[in-house]
Amino acid sequence: MNAREFNFDGLVGPSHNYAGLSFGNVASFNNVRSAANPRQAALQGLAKMRELAARGFAQAVMPPQGRPNFRLLRRLGFSGSDADVLAHAYREAPVILACAYSAAPMWTANAATVSPSADSHDGRVHFTAANLNNKLHRSEEHVQATRTLRAIFHDGSHFMVHDPLPPVPAFGDEGAANHTRFASSYGAAGVEFFVYGRVEFDPAAPSPKKYPARQTLEASQAVARLHGLDPARTVFAAQNPDVIDQGVFHNDVIAVGNGNVLFYHDQAFFDEAETIEALRRSLGGVGAELQAVRVASGQVPVADAVASYLFNSQLLSKPDGRMALVVPHECRENAAVSRYLAGLVAGGGPIDELVEFDLRQSMRNGGGPACLRLRVVLTDDQAAAMHQGVIMTEALYAQLVAWVERHYRDRVEPKDLADPQLAIECAAALEELTRILGLPGLYDL
Question: Domains in the chain and their CATH numbers?
Fold first, then answer.
């Protein structure tokens, strides 16, 4: 069956800021409380979307979430007018105010886990919004994420958007950042690969000692059941707890896959040999052969992989059957990574091209190219059935750039989160965005 992979990139919101809320995300923590540039961040993301769409890749936009989250602030005891709520929160609990203003929804790899119709029991595309319950600032994203997914993928004959898993530690779910799909082609039956960092009901299972493991085995298994996946074509693997403690908070910081290719670091998995063998067996069952591109620690140490976000890249299939690797500028600036990539594209393997983008604003907040996008495989009929207003075109790009220029500040500091005018500006921007994208009522502000 003919199918394409659409990348839904998160559109950076007008309150983009560096709060450093994500313990375990080294880049985020390193830039805590520095000044951010929302306008530049949004334009950098839009430039990436436009370029990939112009190259023929299917590209769409995921709208930002409403900020600040007044519902969260009021639930936590801050009352009065909106201005009063902001002032009280800034004075009494500035970290909670920062959580209510979190920029993290821009990383749509965490919005949901997606299984295409070729893999599901009922022939529909399945989505499960991630509960993200490990961090306060992300724990309510699923409310708007579910609402947005249901607005875009509204046709129940083609799509099923599930509620998130229960928001308890046993079912910690971080979405597609810990999920990869392999297949001989996008429309063929594939193998779905779930990577977890912790096992709730087995205290003897390996787990990190310094940083939290955010994805549980139990959550991954529940998503696989909800999506009606074939157990013979579903692989679960433990992330290496030692690399979690080195800042690899999601699997997509240490590995990325596409088609039948897995590009990964030799320290990515707790049992590398068994993980690769399990993928080979499962892919063999659907008539495909795994191509594992292994990066040794001697070539690129984990610290360099984390600093450059080498693996938080996009692998995109080109018409000639080879693949392009979408990387941030930081990969060129890191000597070990730059040297490795030069050899990679010249080495005759499946990856023969680098596509580089300036995503500095996102990178400083802890997310690279892979964090910014949610991958959704759609047949032609499914692509026609989804909401068309979010598909990236030259016309939409021009509209969104003009919208950003009208509404976004070029500087946001921590003290600005107490400014009620920023909240007013954000609400006005999102109200106009719903008209641009043709999604009235998208927000419950």
Answer: 1-107+372-445 (3.75.10.20)
